[in-house]
Specification:
about 25% strand
Length: about 450
């Protein structure tokens, strides 16, 4: 049995810990069956944003007549679009692996791991033990128990990013952020989209007004079935047939591609973490305290598998704290203040802090400001008639409680609010700061000025 100062399971954000520890001279093991770089690089944020940019370009061309330009798309080289993304991420993954293998203090085990005892793992035919262990093994697509689903060749987001042939029609099961982004990608390039969502609105975890508006916009572009459950799946020839049951009616949806985007499942079962004395919650995520310590001695967890936030940027934040707590022994609580998120669909969505439904539930005395893109100079130039900014502030302290944006460049605009919230500033800091006119960021400033105290 080999022994290590530190074992890191998962080669995504866990590599931030392993590489820093190796640089300090620690004997480190990295365990990762798949390509290096984790979900974000290989099956998530990086390849999806590369292909989604092609969709954004296509959508811009389709709207060109609004700006006095009569352009059209003559053809789509779908294989080139997905191939470009795959080649970029595959190259990066190989370079990361090469770097790990060349590091004299790091040993890579490119096999599946299973706990057999506390801080002890079976990796392939070998057994390894760590003085300290970091679990950063992520999640995988969740597959709902729908009759017939396992008997057909459906795809998940893993495969959707690498298809070489564009489907004519795609049915998507699920209405969260993955469904929203992939519907935009395929739909903007010409695939007819059906979305079956059991909840009342798409992206239901957003601020309610944002969810409602997004569902309305998507409903004009795609066939949206909200309040429906997919109960049976079958295949006839090359066509998928999905039976969707609603409160008042049932529908049969036919398509030549079926995408399951019904959330994520933590990989704790594959790792058999219970044998490592690591407790999990009812959803299978690892239980951690404020220092990201698990219930097992000298064992930490970070990223998606810990279930706090399922974002790459939150995993990177947690990796820094795990490095401080596990390697440097500094014992610092994780600070998640102003943790943002964005959905790269069309329109884009971004948010930070509390939603309006949260504020009502917590009975917080808040004030709200709202501003439409189209009422600003740049909003008119862009002809964004649907976009708006909502911002919430505490009525007593004037501290920012949350902000939610739908519209052009929402993922960029939100950063003005993130910085202010992280610094603990009042909303006055946003309204008093001089904004470039007529930059799109004025919609944030004007949303603040719209607040009625």
């Amino acid at each position: 049995m080999q022994s290590f100062d530190l074992i890191v399971i998962g080669a995504g954000s866990g590599l931030n810990v392993s590489s820093a520890a190796a640089d300090m001279g620690m004997k480190v093991a990295v365990v990762e069956k798949g390509p290096m770089g984790g979900t974000c690089l290989n099956r998530g944020c990086i390849p999806s944003k590369i292909i989604i940019h092609s969709a954004d370009v296509a959508e811009t061309i389709k709207k060109s007549n609004l700006f006095g330009i009569n352009a059209r798309i003559s053809s789509i080289d779908f294989k080139k679009i997905t191939g470009r993304a795959s080649s970029i991420v595959d190259k990066d993954a190989k370079e990361i692996e090469q770097g790990i293998r060349e590091d004299k203090n790091t040993t890579l085990f490119k096999v599946e791991a299973k706990f057999i005892a506390e801080r002890t793992l079976k990796v392939g035919k070998e057994t390894i033990k760590g003085n300290k262990v970091v679990i950063a093994a992520g999640t995988r697509p969740s597959i709902p128990p729908i009759e017939g689903l396992n008997e057909v060749d459906y795809i998940t987001s893993d495969e959707a990013l690498r298809l070489k042939k564009q489907p004519k029609t795609m049915t998507i099961l699920g209405g969260g952020y993955i469904a929203a982004e992939l519907a935009h990608f395929y739909g903007a390039l010409g695939t007819k989209i059906n979305i079956i969502q059991r909840r009342e609105f798409l992206i239901p975890e957003e601020d309610e007004e944002i969810s409602r508006k997004f569902t309305e916009i998507f409903g004009k572009k795609y066939n949206i079935l909200t309040g429906y459950n997919a109960t049976r799946v079958s295949k006839k020839g090359k066509n998928f047939i999905v039976v969707a049951e609603g409160k008042k009616s049932n529908k049969k949806i036919i398509s030549d591609a079926l995408l399951v985007a019904a959330g994520r499942t933590p990989n704790t079962d594959i790792l058999d973490v219970k044998k490592g004395d690591v407790d999990i919650d009812e959803k299978g995520f690892i239980k951690t305290n404020d220092y990201l310590e698990t219930t097992a001695k000298n064992t930490w967890a970070l990223g998606d598998i810990a279930g706090k936030y399922l974002f790459k940027h939150s995993a990177n934040l947690e990796a820094q704290y795990v490095y401080n707590n596990a390697v440097l022994k500094q014992k610092i609580k994780v600070d998640y203040t102003a943790m943002p998120h964005a959905i790269f669909s069309s329109p884009q969505i971004a948010g930070v802090g509390l939603r309006e439904q949260d504020l009502k539930q917590k009975k917080i005395d808040y004030a709200v400001g709202r501003y439409n893109y189209i009422d600003s100079g740049m909003g008119i130039a862009l002809q964004d008639k649907d976009g708006f900014v909502k911002i919430f502030a505490d009525k007593k302290t004037k501290k920012i409680l949350g902000c939610h944006i739908i519209g052009t460049d929402a993922s960029t605009l939100i950063h003005e609010v993130i910085v202010a919230m992280k610094a603990g500033l009042k909303v006055d800091a946003l309204s008093d700061a001089v904004h470039v006119h007529p930059a799109l960021s004025e919609v944030v400033q004007r949303a603040v000025r719209d607040i009625e105290w």
